[in-house]
Every structure is written in structure tokens, then in C-alpha cells.
Amino acid sequence: MISRLAAHINGSVILFGAIAVAAFWFAIQLCWSAVGKPWYSVAGRVAGAVALIGLGIVMIFFTAFGG
User: Taking the complete model, does pTM exceed 0.85, yes or no?
Assistant: First the structure.
């Protein structure tokens, strides 16, 4: 089991995983920074957060099943 897992890890898996983590982190930061802002700023931040979460989900898929 460990050898199969080690065989799966390569540069693209590490890259896709890092992009997924960064996308989720930036999405959370966008949501936290929306407090007290005008509605159009909040709408832009929410749209950006949704896009980043979508990117994170895609990168998790690529990490799990290969690109």
C-alpha cells in the first residue's frame, strides 16, 4: 500500500495539490476580507472565492486521478 502511494506521487501531483491548497486559502481570505465592504465589493469577492473553490476542486480531482 505504501509503495503504491509512493509510486503515485510525482511532480504533477505535488503541483496540483499545492494549487488546490493555495486556491482554498485565497478563497477563505477573500471571504474574511469582505466584512464591512460595499455590496459590489462583496459580490466580487464572493465570485472570486467561488472561482477559487472551483479551481481547488478541479485540482483535487487531478491530484487524485491524474492529469
Answer: no
